[in-house]
Amino acid sequence: xxxxxxxxxxxxxxxxxxxxxxxxxxxxxxxxxxxxxxxxxxxxxxxxxxxxxxxxxxxxxxxxxxxxxxxxxxxxxxxxxxxxxxxxxxxxxxxxxxxxxxxxxxxxxxxxxxxxxxxxxxxxxxxxxxxxxxxxxxxxxxxxxxxxxxxxxxxxxxxxxxxxxxxxxxxxxxxxxxxxxxxxxxxxxxxxxxxxxxxxxxxxxxxxxxxxxxxxxxxxxxxxxxxxxxxxxxxxxxxxxxxxxxxxxxxxxxxxxxxxxxxxxxxxxxxxxxxxxxxxxxxxxxxxxxxxxxxxxxxxxxxxxxxxxxxxxxxxxxxxxx
Length: 322
Prior knowledge:
mainly beta, single chain
């Protein structure tokens, strides 16, 4: 809470960067004139911002782009200008019911109600990304086109997190083409964002990648004992592969005491184990895991020794028969 500070003129990233848990901020009755676009970059937990009765004439939407639109942002009592740069305030502002109407000053020096503000050539960007989803085999290519409109003419930006995939961007004034080459299984499930922004605001559209690839058994480990015995495995594949177990080359019929358990599942991988409850020596031997989908299959084997078999000598057998 900051009030009546005559030497406070601006707020920048360096002002609040160490207050990472800041939730409520009030700055009122100061000479605050400017707030930088990255002022609240590190304050991701902000839920309430009160900037009433300062000296702010212009504010960028970028300053509050990480601030949830449902949280209060209070600005009344500032000499805001009736300009396009402030148009975003009309679109998203929330004031208390009992607060005075938010106003701005036009180029003639007249006070106007913010709700009626309609500056010329001032339109929020619209953006369209085609396609919105794409399904392609690994090694394939994808082309996406992002088209934008708005006034002033918006800038088109791509957000990609694809370190292993080659891509090219061909920008034009109102559209931008993205070409992805040699897509890998690591790209499966990724979301690509195209955004269009101008001084009025920002709009986003997304493309989701569905990369098809055959199964691979990344690991198959020897049995481990926790609450029950477990043969751990990690399997990749899209679509999710069917898993079959073989014991001594015979198909294993799963039931309550021997069954596949998936402990963690992501877009690309399943981590789990073959769980065995109280196995005996008859469960010793070689286990083979087969993973298959419509694009291929993979298999691996592991040897399990749960309990040593009973030591029965031939003499014991004869004595038993008598």
